[in-house]
Prior knowledge:
- This protein is an alpha/beta fold.
- It has 3 domains: 3-136, Rossmann fold (3-Layer(aba) Sandwich), CATH 3.40.50; 141-206, Helicase, Ruva Protein, domain 3, CATH 1.10.8.60; 212-329, Up-down Bundle (Zinc Finger, Delta Prime, domain 3).
- 57% of the residues lie in helices and 9% in strands.
- It contains 16 helices and 6 strands.
- It has helices at 7-14, 28-43, 62-69, 94-100, 124-129, 141-154, 161-171, 175-189, 197-206, 212-220, 224-236, 241-263, 268-275, 279-286, 294-313, 318-329, and strands at 3-4, 20-25, 52-56, 79-84, 106-112, 133-136.
- It has a 6-stranded parallel β-sheet with strand order 1-6-2-5-4-3.
- Helix 3 (62-69) links the parallel strand 3 (52-56) and strand 4.
- It is globular, with a radius of gyration of 22 Å.
- The model has no long low-confidence stretch (mean pLDDT 90).
Amino acid sequence: MPIPILAIKDELKKSELKPIYFLCGEDSYSINLVLNLIIEKTEKYLSSEFDKESFHGKDVSLQNILANASTFPFGSQKKLIILKEFEDVKDKEELKNYAVSPSEFTIFVAIYNENLPKKLTEPLKTLDKKNYLYEAKTLKGKSLLAWLTSFTSSNNKTLNTLNAQMLVDLVGENREMLEGQLEKIFTYLDERIEITLDDIKKLAASLKEYSIFDLQDVVAKKNSGETLKIVYNMLDNGKELIEILNYFTRYFMTVSRVFELEKDKVSQTEGAKILGIHPFYYLKCKELKRYYSESDLLNVSRTLLNTDIAIKTTNTDKKTLATILFAEMFKP
């Protein structure tokens, strides 16, 4: 049976790293959490950035990556190879033979952003047999409420089950979203400990409008329908198009810098320090490679500039400008 993904937290405390971690499931929150724990644990074995590499499944041959995994590190005790979007890999079966006898000096992490099939096929069967297969199931119902109360307690606050359910009803089941909203409540509470129903209601009032972060998430994935829905809502609620434009100008400048640092094989931690941003935000920018190429970023830059000029020199309706802006940004 696949191992619950959060078991890795205890494993990393008690034992050495395994040569393979195959992380699968639709719970991106747990996968990102565990991936960062593995990276942290591996750091002490890495003395060269050349021994830490990250790939996306649609861009590579698994055979070539595993051949790389079998070569000695440049100057470190171990090397770390992260392969994201394993679901896009074409030669998946290559992992079966590697899993039988993996390299002793390589930590290979594969991320499969889909749920496991009911009947395992190769290479999943071999990974499961070797205890390299970890499953991240989305928390629901009582399990999600238990996580909410536990997370709140770890931040020295209290949240009862009824209010936890109210928060889920309001925000949804996405744990990244829930954590973000709880952080807002923690700040609002200041030294007060208990999260009350009134606090949840005040949050509800603030969530009646979409935020720039909601817009950022759908723009990052080039979701044109949701993008226009959110940007129209923001404009209807008094947000100025020039403010949205300025935000995305800064955002895509940061994304471009992250792409440059990735080319130079700068680590996530060091890159975040260089740019003065949170490592999680750095990772979010880095993940745009799935949707935006370097030529796409150039197109985005030109489109933002053209829209800025149009706002300042024409009387065109703001929703029309916003529609043109994102249509041009999302051009294939």
